[in-house]
Amino acid sequence: MIQFFIEDVDFKVPQPRKTKSWLQSIIKAEGFMLNQLNYIFCSDEYLLNVNRQYLEHDFYTDIITFDNSEEEAVVEGDIFISIDRVKDNAQELKKPFEEELRRVLAHGILHLVGYDDHEDEQEQEMRAKEDFYLTIS
């Protein structure tokens, strides 16, 4: 099950049913099964506090992913997304907000299925996967 939660921002997920179906298709395409996935949409300040409290990082970010799965090939987690950051990134990249939002939604799943982006090569691979899944509706 995929659930969307709104914390301290005025935001509605565009086409929630279609978005959930698209996210499920990514999980399936990566060879995983879905258990429980929670997206928490919030502000920069809210996510900064999460970053400080749980990761001991003192900087803004667009997404933080927590993997709660205890089984192989099963997706279970919490994905926090700063709507402020997504809006700013979309403007900076000259992309529509919804496209940048979808990229970040997919990015969180890719972390949960084992992709990393700490090194340049990993980041390129993850970006290619995001681009691929953005072509699927």
Automatic annotation (TrEMBL):
PROSITE patterns per the UniProt record, alphabetical: UPF0054
Protein name: Endoribonuclease YbeY
Subcellular localization(s) per the UniProt record: Cytoplasm
GO biological process: rRNA processing
Record Pfam families: YbeY (PF02130)
The protein's Enzyme Commission number: 3.1.-.-
InterPro entries: MetalPrtase_cat_dom_sf_prd (IPR023091), YbeY (IPR002036), YbeY_CS (IPR020549)
Record family assignment: Belongs to the endoribonuclease YbeY family.
Top-level taxon in the UniProt lineage: Bacteria
Cofactor: binding comment: Binds 1 zinc ion.
Residues annotated as binding Zn(2+): 107, 111, 117
Cellular component, GO annotation: cytoplasm
Keyword tags: Cytoplasm, Endonuclease, Hydrolase, Metal-binding, Nuclease, Ribosome biogenesis, rRNA processing, Zinc
Organism for this UniProt entry: Runella aurantiaca
Cofactor(s), by name: Zn(2+)
